[in-house]
Amino acid sequence: MKKYDTIFLDRDGTLNPDPGYINSLDDFIFYDFTLEALKQLEIFGDNFCIVTNQSGVGRGIIKIDELSRINNYILDQFYVNKLPLLGIYYCTDHPDNATKYRKPGVGMFNKASIDNSIDLKRSIMIGDSISDIQPGVKLGMDTMLVLTGKGNESRSKLGEITPTYFAKNLLDGVKQIKGSDS
Ligand SMILES: [Mg+2]
After folding, report:
1. Is-contact 135 103, C-beta < 8 A?
2. What's the CA-to-centroid distance between 166 and ligand 1, angstroms?
3. I need a surface site. Which of 31, 60, 143, 174 has the fewest CB within 10 A?
């Protein structure tokens, strides 16, 4: 059976609907399939790790305290559902002044890898944007484009980039990994 070291997850458009710059916990809600999908995905990885661009902070649209509240809620939901989450790595850079930490940069992945001794080449990145797939490919990871959020739009712009998997959504992603096995 396929077994990943770490399953990296994008947040907006992958775990939760993405109306754009969620700046209040009141506006954050997981997709109805997310927790079930994560429980099933857990079989295929030792850990989860969230990597998310939150330029809304850099743009002055999201207060850092509110992002922390959302992060705490997510951490709590993973804990309550016994889902092993290494951490939530977020990048608040404005795109005009982006560091290597803002996806498609690989900074958050490398930091997570050093912090937690993750073997990136034995890991997978799941997200709805090209900027989720690019760093995964660059780092030799498996990748999955989910067609929720910006997924459909991203799919039409992939060009030379080929994700390892396409999935309708995170729950369908479980089937895709299962189907590639054996
Ligand atoms: Mg996204």
Report:
1. yes
2. 15
3. 60
